[in-house]
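Exam review. A common question shows you a sequence with its structure tokens and asks you to describe the fold in words. Practice with the pair below. Do the first one on your own.
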Amino acid sequence: MWGKGQISYFIGAGVGYANKGELPRGIHQVLRAGYDGQFYYRLALDPFNWAATAFGIRMDQPYRYTRIGYPLVTWVLSLGQHSWVPVMLVVVNLASITAMGVLGGMLARDSGRNALWGLLFVAYFGLIISVGRDTMEPLSDACMLAGMLCYRRQRYIWASVLIGYSVVVNETALALPVAIALWRIWGFWKARAIKPGLKDLGWVVPGAAYVVLSLAQKAFGGLKGAAASSDVTRNLTFPFQGIIDGLYQDFRHISFTHMGLYDYNLLEFVTLAAFVVTAFLVIRRSTIPAYEKLAFTLFVLIEFVMASDAIWGSTFGELRTQVEAWVFSVLILLATPTKYLPRRRLVALTVLAVVTLLVVARRRVLFQ
């Protein structure tokens, strides 16, 4: 229903960046600018072709090249067959969400909860867009959760590889290795006798991977010059400016007669904010490691405080780029003793999450 019977509609190849006459055979074009999935699709056809335009699709921003992880996995699974890529983009995301649920269950059990609570990690409404428009968030978060689990269990080499790959998929995941680095530096300063070791691979490897990829983008990426400055300015802004502008827009266009575009935005904001605020209220009582609490704070700083109006003002993205704030909120809540977070409150938050998920899913299936 989402793709009207055609899987290639998930790509969202639009008239703004795609030349219909040059697109691979069987790829449908939408009569709009298109969506992010078209750039991941284009790289998945050949992840080593970093030209500004290839396969009929023109890149819009330089940071697309540094998010090579999702297209690379898809290319490998497609065995280089271009006709398989549209399907494999969806398969990779569905498999990643499945992995997030399984890993969430393991993390829930680590916190003394039933494994079924792990489903709360994948109850985020923004993942609907990630799957339905071929974007990279599910793979990045699956790798990040797997890396966190390995790090907790002192499998530091695997942790560094998995966290590093999550950064290669989406650079926002850098908040986790930055948190680990700050935590380790604090330990060095406080204990003084602590020496660098395998634990530090958790931030050294991801950091090195991002630096190498950024240098490669500067050297070989097809978009150079003034366009490169948009990496930061497009996604980040002055503190709270983006969220204030976005909420002002939503309240200004609110509808009291039916669920309009901006009403969905407000529902999504309220749901996400409820989880984030509750997590902050109990963060001191949560039993998760200190570096995970710090990572949560950094993700909220990036995805809430600093996120631009291009993110908060969108009526299509379903806040998909704020998924890490959601994941770490759930992580904190599940690891908080019932003495400080009564079960009824957690159940109420879960009901709110499920209702919002169903409302957004219905909107997407019926109205696209």
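Now try the second one, then compare your answer with the model answer below.
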Amino acid sequence: MMVRRIVEVDGRVGQPNIPACVVLGNLILPSVISGRDPAASEQSDDPEIQIAQAFVNMKAVVEAAGGTLDGIGKVTVYLKDFSHRRYVNECWQAMFPDADNRPARHVLKAELQPGDWVQLDVIASL
């Protein structure tokens, strides 16, 4: 029987009783990753800043679980406004510069919480 290990991330603002991330066996399964800066008191209303922060937060969660960017297998990106995909592409290429070594990715338009422009869902392994 696999043991579920809960991973929390310093400064993360999330829902009560929902962990930042779960490690199950070799899998890293974060809860939703937002574009909120854990060091800021207010969330930016700028979609470009939120999207960049979401990628920073993704890296922090995966690393807190003991993983690396190389262990990310798939990223699903939820955008409130699909025209912001260009910001996703910029962050994507900066975080994964090797075109021959990138995770799978899916970008979807979604209704998000008020003030949120982006959410990431990630599947990674240790």
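Model answer, second protein: The beta strands are 4-7, 21-24, 27-30, 33-34, 72-79, 104-109, 118-125. Helices lie at 47-64, 85-95. Full marks require stating both points clearly.
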